[in-house]
Specification:
By secondary structure, the protein is α+β, with helices and mostly antiparallel strands. It folds into two domains: 159 residues, no CATH class; 148 residues, Sulfite Oxidase, Chain A, domain 2, CATH 3.90.420.10. It contains seven helices and 13 strands.
Length: 323
Amino acid sequence: MLLFAFGTGVATVAIGSPDGAWVAIGHGICGMAVLLLIPWKSRVVRGGLRRARLTRWLSLLLAVLALVTLIAGLGYATGLVRSIAGKPGVWVHIAVALALVPLVVWHVWARRIRPRRTDLSRRALLRAGVLTAGAAGLYAAAETVISGLGLPGAKRRFTGSYEMASFRPEAMPTTSWLLDAVPAVDPDRWRLAVKDGQGRRELTLAELTSFDATVQATLDCTSGWYSHQDWTGVPLDTLLHSEPGTQSVYVHSITGYWIRFPIHDLDRLLLATQVGGAPLSAGHGFPVRLVAPGRRGYWWVKWVDRVELQTTPSWWQPPFPVG
C-alpha cells in the first residue's frame, strides 16, 4: 500500500490536466488505506518491541515518519494545516515521504517474508477488496465532511493546490523549482536563440514585445498554490516551424534549467513577456517565460534564452527536472 501511495503521490505532482484528477483521488484513497491498516500494524509493532533488537529504533523512526506524512497530508487536504514550521504543508508531506523511502527499503529487506501461494488466495484477494472499498468510502466521507463544514480544503484544485493572487500578478508567489536563484538580466544585451528546420537566429526583447497574443492560463505550482492570470507574448508556433521528423520542443533557461515538450504541444505554448498587462518581474521570469497551459509550474520555464525544435523524443529527459 505504501508503494501505491508513493507511486500515485509522484504522479500527482506531475498532473496538470483535469483528465488526471483520478491520480490524486487514488493517492487520497491509498492514504486512507494506510490509515485503516494502522490498528492491524500496531499489533505487529507491539510484538516486535518485545524483542530487543538494536535496529528497532530505525523501525520506530519509520513509524513516526509515516505518521507525520499522514498527518501533514490530511492537514493540507482539509486546509487546516497549510504550513508547518514555515514551510508549505504539501512540501513537508512530500519531503518526509521521500525520507521514508530508504527506511522502507531497509525494513522490507531486513524483515523479508517469502511469497506464499496463499498471498493470492481468494480470501486474501477478498481482504484486499474490502480494504480498498473501505478506503474509498473513507475518502468519500472525508471529502463530504470537508465540503459540508466549509473547510478551506473544499476550495482546493484537483491537484490539491489552493488559489492565490488570481489576476493580481504583483501578489503572485515567486517560487522556483529546486530553488533556482533569480538571475540578473540586461534586457539590452539579452537575446533569444531560436533554432528550427530553417536554421538558427536570435531575437531581441523589443522584437518579442511587438507580439501581443494573450491567453488566460492557470499556473499551478507544486508548492501547493495556483493562480489564474492573463499572459501576453508570442505563440511559440509563430517562431518555430516544424518539419517532418521533429519530435520535441526544447526550452532552455539562463539558469541552465530546461524542459523538452512533445511536438504536439507546440501550438499551445506561449513565450510571455507580460502578465496582467505589465512586463514580467524578475522573480516571475523577466524578460521572457514560458506559459504551458494544462501543465504544472515546473514546465513553465522562466528566464528563457533558447528554444529549439529537435528530433529527440520528448520522453528523453528525467521524469522531473534536475537542473
